[in-house]
Amino acid sequence: MKTVYLYGFMGCGKSYTGKKARDELNINYADSDEYIVNREHKTIAEIFGKYGEEFFRGLELSALKEITADLVSLGGGALTSGETAEYVKENGIVIFINTPFETCYNRIKNDSSRPLATRKSKTELLKLYENRKLHYNQTADFIMQNNEEIIKKIKEYL
């Protein structure tokens, strides 16, 4: 069976939706960022700060190859790496959680665990959101907003 991957901008609700689906559908769920933090014994911010984003993207790919779960929440930039995007597309389906920027921004603006959110201004984050949204639309198998619809789609697929 293939995996369902939840993807979208920081603060779009990937982890929330993943945990809700896990509880409602009684499935195996993993958050790739949490997996990396537990494996590396460092926060995402520490990894970014010490090794940089490119190194972190490599950790994401190796983590996804290790994770065995029905449903996985991806980091907001995970599929910007071509090799990671290829791996995910070969091994499952991608649901883009299409949450408006203002909603995402209000959820992340004071979150020190998000290195990109703490280093960039609102204007810079909006530009990143707009650039990534094009990528999210191209990478996704399904584009959805509503949690109940997403959970229904996960149930259908699994």
Verbal overview:
With 158 residues, this protein is of the alpha/beta class. The protein has one domain (3-157): Rossmann fold. 60% of the residues lie in helices and 13% in strands. It has helices spanning 14-25, 32-40, 44-51, 53-66, 82-91, 101-108, 115-119, 122-139, 147-157, and strands at residues 3-7, 29-31, 71-73, 92-97, 142-144. A five-stranded parallel beta sheet has the order 2-3-1-4-5, with helices on both faces. The chain starts with a strand and ends with a helix. The model has no long low-confidence stretch (mean pLDDT 91).
- The protein's oligomeric status is single chain
CATH superfamily: P-loop containing nucleotide triphosphate hydrolases
Measured as a percent range, the helix fraction is 55-70%
Enumerate how many helices there are, as a single number: 9
Rg computed from alpha carbons, rounded to a whole number of angstroms: 15 Å
The fold-level CATH name is: Rossmann fold
* CATH architecture level-2 label: 3-Layer(aba) Sandwich
User: Strand fraction band?
Assistant: 5-15%
Mean pLDDT: 91
Strand order of the largest sheet: 2-3-1-4-5
Count of extended strands: 5
Encode the helix/strand succession as letters: EHEHHHEHEHHHEH
Number of discrete domains: 1
